[in-house]
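User: For my dataset I need records formatted as: sequence, then structure tokens, nothing else. Please produce one.
Assistant:
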Amino acid sequence: MADLPRIAELLRRIADRIDYRGAPKLTGFSFTFEAGEGIRWRDDGKGCPVAYLGEEQYERAHTEADSNRPRPATRGIDHE
């Protein structure tokens, strides 16, 4: 039984090498950033899924917002 944590760690490392981004776990909900409102939680498929992989999906929260306006500059945070 003492070897189980070591075996589990080895299996985790092997899985990470095979699929380094991991498996997405989606809830069926998404969100968009709405001007004057903030985050709007959605169940219509628009926007960024609550669980996601990659920056492309996160950017959908801005590009698919109903109030699709330019993003305001954020001081002190580098988005690139």
